[in-house]
């Protein structure tokens, strides 16, 4: 049995994750959620004083905003759209007939105006652009959202629906690059507090197709994205648990987002993969939170 399946099986057996019959789609136990809540509280202790504006979006976003974002150029294979039945009574009868006879009942479904959010920050850029130019000090936002990516896998660290906590900075290139650098340091300190071994490396995103190869090279050569990696299901290939992205003026140009003096704004975001971090904690410290090292329990606010 490989390491991925064995961790997933153990997570199911312990009840921390709940099998829903689809790879990458799991229920979470109260204890699993509690770990995530506590880790988020720990993140907060590193962000106090930043005065980030908290915004919550649902896990679906405006299809037009999704189309404008450029996501389909890079990752068409990961996107998930929301479709719905929009037919008449005859169509309904056909649908039920298909269901009855085991045929595909989804063929008549039509796209709605909602697309599943692929990364927590995607709905934010058009929202902030609508407010007008950024203030002199730029913008700083705190987000958390369930995100969808169509990549079924038996690796518990690769889920189809998972939560991302993000901080997003908007402003001048200097402001956003400084923000990203600061969080790379904070990320390392944060993980050290909860006893997780990390390395930081340039990212390797799964850009689609031949054009994607160019985007991949560009991302790597220009150091646009770094990841904080922690071994979870493979020692040889540790898992990205945080990412640090510099989008340059991509979203600024796309949404006409400007700085206070009218320049195209630059943006950067820092994302925490919350389920992955919880899995890293369970993998490194054991499946029973009560048995975790005292220092880790303390950092997460568990009573002694
Ligand atoms: P990114 O946009 O950089 O791909 O994702 C941001 C963060 O979300 C990643 O650093 C990672 O921690 C988390 N993430 C990305 N893909 C997955 C996934 O398939 N499953 C889970 N649980 N987390 C993911
Ligand atoms: Zn982001």
Give the topology, please.
Elements: H1 3-14, E1 17-22, E2 25-28, H2 30-47, E3 53-54, E4 60-62, H3 63-69, H4 71-74, E5 81-84, H5 89-100, E6 110-116, H6 124-129, E7 139-148, E8 161-171, H7 173-193, E9 199-202, H8 209-221, E10 225-230, E11 239-248, H9 250-255, E12 266-273, H10 274-285, H11 294-299
Helix pairs in contact: 2-10
Bound molecules: guanosine-5'-monophosphate and zinc ion.
Q: What are its keywords?
A:
304 residues, 3-stranded antiparallel sheet, 12 strands, 38% helix, binds guanosine-5'-monophosphate, binds zinc ion
Fold and architecture overview:
The chain has 2 domains: 3-80 and 118-299, BirA Bifunctional Protein, domain 2, CATH 3.30.930; 86-114, no CATH class. The chain has helices at residues 3-14, 30-47, 63-69, 71-74, 89-100, 124-129, 173-193, 209-221, 250-255, 274-285, 294-299; strands spanning 17-22, 25-28, 53-54, 60-62, 81-84, 110-116, 139-148, 161-171, 199-202, 225-230, 239-248, 266-273. A hairpin with an 8-residue loop joins strand 10 and strand 11. The longest helix has 21 residues, at 173-193. The two termini are 36 Å apart. Helix 2 packs across helix 10. The model has no long low-confidence stretch (mean pLDDT 96). Helix content is 38%, strand content 25%. It is built from 11 helices and 12 strands. The strands form 3 sheets. The protein has a 7-stranded mixed β-sheet. Strands 4-6-5 form a 3-stranded antiparallel β-sheet. A two-stranded antiparallel sheet has the order 1-2. With 304 residues, the chain is of the alpha+beta class. Bound molecules: guanosine-5'-monophosphate and zinc ion.
């Amino acid at each position: 049995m490989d390491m991925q399946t064995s961790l997933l099986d153990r997570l199911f057996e312990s009840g921390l994750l709940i099998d829903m019959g689809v790879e990458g789609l799991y229920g979470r136990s109260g204890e699993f959620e509690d770990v995530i809540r506590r880790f988020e509280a720990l993140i907060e202790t590193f962000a106090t004083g930043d005065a980030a504006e908290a915004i919550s979006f649902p896990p679906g976003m405006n299809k037009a905003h999704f189309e404008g974002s450029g996501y389909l150029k890079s990752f068409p294979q990961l996107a998930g759209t929301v479709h719905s039945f929009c037919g008449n009574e005859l169509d309904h009868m056909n649908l039920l007939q298909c269901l009855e006879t085991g045929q595909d009942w989804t063929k008549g479904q039509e796209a709605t105006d909602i697309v599943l959010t692929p990364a927590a920050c995607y709905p934010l850029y058009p929202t902030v652009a609508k407010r007008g130019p950024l203030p002199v000090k730029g913008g700083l936002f705190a987000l958390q959202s369930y995100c969808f990516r169509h990549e079924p896998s038996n690796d518990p660290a690769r889920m189809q629906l998972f939560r991302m906590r993000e901080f997003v900075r908007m402003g001048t290139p200097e402001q956003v690059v400084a923000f990203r650098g600061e969080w790379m340091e904070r990320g390392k300190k944060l993980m050290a507090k909860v006893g997780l071994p990390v390395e930081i490396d340039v990212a390797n995103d799964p850009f689609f197709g031949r054009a994607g190869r160019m985007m991949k090279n560009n991302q790597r050569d220009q150091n646009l994205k770094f990841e904080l990696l922690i071994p979870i299901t493979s020692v040889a290939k540790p898992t990205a648990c945080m990412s640090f992205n510099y989008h340059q003026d991509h979203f600024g140009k796309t949404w006409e987002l400007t700085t206070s003096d009218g320049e195209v704004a630059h943006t950067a975001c820092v994302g925490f993969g919350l389920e992955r971090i919880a899995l890293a904690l369970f993998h490194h410290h054991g499946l029973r939170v009560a048995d975790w090292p005292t220092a880790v329990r303390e950092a997460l606010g568990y009573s002694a």
